Amino acid sequence: MISRGAAEAFIAACRDELEAPKPGNVHAYAPGHGMTVAQFVASSAAAADWLCMPAARVGARIRGAVEASLKAAGANTNLGIVLLCAPLAAAAELENLQLHAGLVRVLDGLDIGDADDAFAAIARAAPAGLGRAERHDVFAPAQVTLKQAMAQAADRDRIARQYATAFADVFGLGMTLHAAAMTRWCDPKWATLAVYLGFLSAFPDSHVVRKQGAEAAADICRTAMTFNAALWSAQHPADRLGDLLTWDAALKTRGINPGTSADLTVATLFGCRLQCALPSAHNSG
């Protein structure tokens, strides 16, 4: 059943993301920001069944997954991941459609109820930098569909932007980088890192922008370009590990966590796994 396969794909995607030495983010080489790998593992397991509940609305998946994650981890470890992966999981259930075509249908079908549930989940998770908004405030009842609300935030939040662009960053940059990196190194850890650095060097991380400001985010983006180029020039990526962990420690000392890039990375890994796991009929539409 695709729902069980999707849940397994989600947990595997979260595991692969944690195995990569992503500078500034929590990973197997180092904790950070008061959080540990164990918390992320627990939250991914708790969220999986909610995210992949057959025939559930996207908003219900988001709300259930966030509540389960908070209970399991005791902290907001995966709000962005859940917001990105819930529509992907719903799309994987649609028959006779490729994943991206199914995703477009899911996003177009979002309603005000989905927005209410997602708003409640966001307010419950209380992510760093969350404030009040003049329009479509998550602390007030929704007035538009979830896709419309996300479109209003797309210029300042890269996760919201995915809803407005049919996940263009994930299906474009993310999956392209993942395929190229797997061809080059045949190792999920380095492919994951390549996706993360690819996002981090392509645009300022919106989580960093919210917490540390645009200038800090732009500086990290420029530094990521250097690390990204060094990774792709390496025959053996492990040779770059020392430098990566040095930058990782420096970012964490400053309290900088490029969380949006990490969330987009999980969504990319999840999407790749879903495409591989879908029955052939799903890939023929």
Summarize the structure.
This protein is an all-alpha fold.
Structure, described:
The protein has 285 residues and is mainly α. The protein has one domain (2-284): Triphosphoribosyl-dephospho-CoA protein (Orthogonal Bundle). It has helices at 2-19, 37-51, 58-73, 79-92, 99-108, 112-125, 146-153, 158-164, 168-185, 188-202, 206-212, 214-233, 241-253, 259-277. Helix 9 (168-185) crosses helix 10. The model is unreliable at 129-134 (pLDDT under 50).
Please outline the helices and strands.
Layout lengths: L1 H18 L17 H15 L6 H16 L5 H14 L6 H10 L3 H14 L20 H8 L4 H7 L3 H18 L2 H15 L3 H7 L1 H20 L7 H13 L5 H19 L8
Number of individual domains: 1
Largest sheet entry: none
Assign an overall shape. globular
At the fourth CATH level, what is the homologous superfamily? Triphosphoribosyl-dephospho-CoA protein
* Gap from first CA to last CA: 19 Å
Rg estimate, integer Å: 18 Å
Under CATH at level 1, the class stands as Mainly Alpha
Q: Give the count of helical stretches.
A: 14
Percent range for β-strand residues: under 5%
Q: pLDDT average, as an integer?
A: 93
Helical residues, percent? 55-70%
Q: Please give the CATH architecture.
A: Orthogonal Bundle
Secondary-structure-based class equals mainly alpha
SSE sequence, one letter per element = HHHHHHHHHHHHHH
What name is given to the CATH topology?
Answer: Triphosphoribosyl-dephospho-CoA protein
Spans of at least 5 consecutive residues with low confidence? 129-134
